[in-house]
Design brief:
mainly alpha
């Protein structure tokens, strides 16, 4: 018996993750989230964290080494995120001054993410398994 077995159903969590990505992607274009966006970010972060927990649960972790495993996993995720932020944020702040970025990267990329996340949501809710990931 694993620590996480049955705690989070992966199909529900993946559906919630797809819905959160769809919501945020559409907000990038239509800006319907009022102030206090950090509340949405925190809530969606919890949903994505449940996704990580669900995947870890499928690995069959034993409770004897769960602390070290979770600590290592979380440190790895955070270091990876920080590396991406350190590299991308300066470039994105520079690029946002140009109309090409606003029109094609921000709006086009957000619509692409919205379409993919919608397909992912339909795939997970309907258990169709047509998405390769």
């Amino acid at each position: 018996m694993t620590v996480f077995s049955g705690f989070f159903r992966l199909d529900y969590v993946e559906s919630a993750i797809a819905l959160s990505v769809l919501f945020v992607s559409l907000n990038n274009v239509f800006s319907f989230i009022p102030g206090h966006r950090w509340k949405f970010a925190a809530f969606f972060g919890l949903i994505h964290g449940m996704g990580f927990a669900s995947v870890l649960g499928e690995l069959g972790l034993k409770s004897s080494n769960i602390f070290v495993t979770l600590l290592g996993f979380n440190l790895g995720v955070e270091i990876g995120q920080l590396a991406i932020v350190v590299i991308l944020i300066p470039a994105l702040f520079w690029a946002r001054r140009y109309s090409f970025y606003q029109r094609f990267v921000l709006v086009g990329g957000s619509f692409a993410c919205a379409v993919i996340s919608f397909c992912w949501l339909v795939d997970r809710l309907g258990n169709f398994n047509f998405m390769p990931f």
